[in-house]
Amino acid sequence: MPSLSDAFRRLWQPRNGLFWLVLGLQILSSTLVLIIQIQEPPPGLRLILGLFALTNTLLGWWLLARLWREGANRVAPPAQPPRG
Q1: Calpha distance 24→53 (Å, rounded)
Q2: Can you give the pTM of this predicted structure?
């Protein structure tokens, strides 16, 4: 199991566009839910916004898992001593 710092390094990749996409999707999902709760739109619009927020969240989680896997390749394992 990776340490907390390794897990943070695997996810914190500000030079990777995928990192910013995940952040943007999560912020958009949170904003949509906030709009649904505060504005109380009509039921049809509420359903559409809710489905969009849910789809957005699932897409964000899928991209986060992808970012996690790519981050595992970025964190290099310890070097092996040369054999000879």
Answers
A1: 12
A2: 0.71
The domain locations on the chain are: 21-74
Spatial distance between the Cα atoms of 52 and 57, rounded to a whole number of angstroms: 9
Contact 19, 71 (CB under 8 A): no
> Among 17, 14, 30, 18, which Cα is nearest to 65's?
18
Residue 33's SS3 state is helix
Closest to 11 (Cα-Cα) out of 78, 77, 70: 70
Structure tokens of 28?
Answer: 């958009």
* Of 54, 74, 50, the residue nearest 62 (C-alpha): 54
pLDDT in tens, 68-84: 888 777 655 555 666 75
CB 36 within 8 A of CB 53: yes
